[in-house]
Amino acid sequence: MRRWKSVCLFELLMLMPAFLFGQKTDFSGLKIFVNPGHGGHDGDDRHMTATDFWESEGNLEKGLFLRQLLEDRNATVYMSRTTNYTSDDLKLSVIAEMANTANVDIFLSIHSNGFDGTRNQPLMLFRGYDNSPAWPAAKTFAQILWEKIYEKSNCWTHTFEWVKGDWTFYPEWGTEGLGVLRPLNMPGVLSEGSFHDYIAEGWRLRNPNHLHHEAWSMLRALQQYFTVVPEPYGIIAGTVRDQLTSPPYYFDSGTKDQHLPINGATVTLMPLNMSVTLDELNNGFFMFDSVPPGDYQVIAGGMTDFYNDTLSATVTAGKTTLTDFLPSFDTARVPMVLERLPVITDSLPFNQAFSFTFNVTMDREAVQSALLFEPAVNLTYEWDEKSKVLTVRPQVGFVSKTDYLIRLTTAATSKWDVHLQQEYQVSFITKSRSKLVVDKIWPSTGAGGITLFPRITVRFDAPPDQASAIAGIRLLDSQSSPVAKQRELFTSDGGKGSYSFELASPLQTSGNYTIVIDATVRDVTGVTVGAAIAATFSTRTKAYQTGSIVEPFDNTVSFWDPEASGSTTGTDNPLTTFTSSYDIYKTNPPAGRLDYLFTGDDGGVCRVFDTSKPTIGSNTSQVFAMWVYGDLSNNNLEYWFYSPGSVNQIVEAAPINWAGWDLIAIPLSNIGGSGEWQYHSLVVRQNSSGLKSGIMYFDDAMVITPTGIDDTEASETGLAIYPNPVTTKGMITFFLKSGDQVVINLYASDGRLAESLFSGMLDAGEHSIPWYPSPAIAPGVYTLELSHRSGVAGGWHHAARRWVIMR
Amino acid sequence: MRSVFLLLIFLVTIEAYPQSLRVRSVKRIIPAVARSYLLTGVVPGSDQLLVAGEGYNGLFLLDTRKGRMTEISNEPGAGYEPAVTADGKKVFYRSDNFNDNMKASSVYAYDIPTGGKELLADRGRGVIPPAVAGNSVLLRSDSETRVEQRGATLKSGSERIFVVTEEMMPVLYRGGERKALMPNGEGFYIWTSLSPDRTMILYNYQGRGSFICDTDGKILHDLGNINAPRWFNDRIVIGMDDKDDGHRITSSELVYYSLGGKRRVILTSTPDRSEMFPFACGNRKIAFCTDNGEIYLMKVRVR
């Protein structure tokens, strides 16, 4: 009862300023328009690969929560969308007109930002120039909102007030500015609350509480702007992090983000006895809202490897108290093996890898010294970044049909020098092995269209004996003459091995070549292939075209290390680098060299950001290409571009299923958006069936104007147009062998897209599409291009016809 | 004789049921005061347009022949949806004041021949833009609804029919009757307007497309993707097909919909210019502005 009286007294005191200083007690009578930006997971939505964050989702979650907060305080709220479907992605003009028609007092567009992955700070935009806003009140509100969002977090990379007029912020847009602010007849602000491509922030944006926290800040800003009495309650928010471990992605040193968030901890607020369990989304964020002012104890617990931790926090009305935990590690825990893989112990292959998972961080050297194989085996060791999982492999291979014993003695210790209490033992038997197996030959037999600059590659199930491989593996031309080798290379990984070589001179176009592996080729233990193997392939039929070089890869300084390039995730940062190569290059030295190592089995992304961001034009009949030295990794190569407004456009260039130099091209018509594009990044995206590491080279990115029209392809689709010339109605007919994605465009003689006639899926078979030339299309000679591909990942095929338009 | 008769029938049909537009010429209007403008209306029977500054702040008359500007108001919001009487003499507009950042709107009548200004409604909440039918005006706010006659009464019996948007839905005022319409169900109805012959209502339903219904709310036409639709005449609607990337307008073309032909046609194809917010200017011209605040006048051929 006493507590109840105290609360009543407290609330009365909090309302006193309203009576004394003319503040409104709530938002009664006020109309507010909330616009969660973008919508629908497609079109212009922003998706962050590293964190699987969709901006449309974050914006909507913030907007819906803000609406609830405002309506609870008697505001009238209008929203441009309350769901997240494609149909919710309304035109900016429509959103602005909704606000105008609703006759609201203020308009708030909610977004998050993206740049280069290294920046995280709030940005507020209003209409006009910095010092000449179209609505002065909009600038006032923008400043208030920036302050409220800034003060609710301590994970910013920049501290200055970033409040800008859109005409100043986007000088290249002239007086166009932000499309949603321009037609507003009331003050409007577009809030870029934080940077979703700063990976640590991207993970936080996956946490609804973090999004709600931003909505609370918006509420506080609206209360101050409309002179509404502030919240009588406060918020305690913060993070739980591992002080000993840095994240595997870019972070700004000196910020809280230099410590890896801890998933799954439980945070309790006392004496209110409220608890939250942290999610598993790598943000470590928690929040208690609507907390009465006063002193509290905040307790972090429920962590496997860490001691519970308690911090004091004082809550102030209308403010956030930030409480960040760096709990101490439990250094006295006795180490033990939690799991060993594989579980089976019978008939294991000669190159079997074993992994041991420990319950605590281990001393690597002590464990490696204490791990014994009997009979003795030379091993390779691989640790995870927390030193809790060890994977070992035989350097040469286990002996065929042999009993082995693995011992991990009590000499193994944790990082804090605590020993295993008892020795760990397991035995296994290897199966018999009769021959050296060829896992892969590239180019494979029957392959066509092979590059003229291949690296011939043979992979075995064991490291080959080098002398026998050099002597017994060769490339023969169509006359059965051996082709001279250069840069021969042996590699071994995971108990397997490979031999590869380049050729001293380029292969001939339309040539037939055969890779021969003699029966005598053997591995390091003396096991032979047993029978000779041959693989015949043919080279590409056309010579390479060249174009206007937009990025020669000559200046390494203009490229960012993958770690700092944003969106990079799942890589071993010290071993993933982008440097200059003066020994391997395509035209002139240097070329760019990418060394990458993915730490997981899938989902890794390795991005190299090119700060020069060369413009590649807008001509959709042209092709963007670069020389790429493939590593046969079976990962995926992507080119990333900006369309106007720095909207990221990702294009799948090719699966990396070749070795050596090849010109990897994509049509500009495959790039999303329109207008002048800029190339800005090359990306290797890890495939679950791809190699975890590799080395690639890049040289001479260029824009090519394709010469001629591919009549061969046209005959395959039977593309026909009539009448020609056409006046008011034309007909386009063609045949598809399979159900394909089809795009039909009409280009003017200068390459400009004159009209997009069709885009969509079509079934296999004959198709006839009528076309009525728009009066806006001037008479002249045009090129009609039919592009089609099967599936999203398939390559595009093009056919074209010249069409004369008359009036 | 029969051929002449058929030709006459054909010509009369074309005039009575115009179905298509074709661009003849486009001319940029250079206002005497250089700044970024929004086109916000036309003055019937004159060469004058109504334009507003950024954020619909201020309202001006723009002479299309010489670019001369006449300031009607410099108040916030004055340029949003002004209404002009059929005789082209009076402009009604709403202007906004902000007290503690809360909007309060007034309505004024501006007399074009004399430049005189009259306050019709002072600082109210929920004031919707004035609607004009013939030479009468509907004034509507949270506190009142009234119709005033501001010029000669027209012969048309349907003069006092108004359509406005209240609580995001079209509302028809006819005589003493008020009828709220929701032809497509609940949702945001924007850009509502009454056809010149006062028998049809044009609107956009929450960005999903533009429609025409009759005065009972029965949908007559689905116009497709047309934003900022306006009546060109009783048989043709003009508007814009704007595209954006979520931040910036990336392109916008003028389009029209022929009620007789039941088809939507792209009127312009100008990648370098984004035409927006068109208005019919007489029966042979269309005025529009661009995303960077330029004003243009387009001559069209009507067939």
CATH superfamily of the domain at 38-159 in chain B, by name, is TolB, C-terminal domain
Oligomer: heterodimer
Radius of gyration of chain B: 19 Å
Strand proportion of chain B, as a percent range, falls in over 45%
Low-confidence stretches of chain B: 4-16
Describe the main β-sheet of chain A briefly. Answer: 7 strands, antiparallel
CATH topology of the largest domain in chain A: Aminopeptidase
CATH topology of the domain at 38-159 in chain B: Neuraminidase
Estimate the global geometry of chain B from the Cα principal axes.
globular
Using only C-alpha atoms, the radius of gyration of chain A works out to 32 Å
Classify the helix fraction of chain A into a percent range.
10-25%
CATH class of the domain at 38-159 in chain B, named Mainly Beta
What is the CATH top level name of the largest domain in chain A? Alpha Beta
Largest sheet of chain B: 4 strands, antiparallel
Shape, principal axes of CA atoms of chain A: flat
* CATH A-level architecture of the largest domain in chain A: 3-Layer(aba) Sandwich
Give the tally of structural domains of chain A: 6
Mean pLDDT over the full residue set of chain A: 90
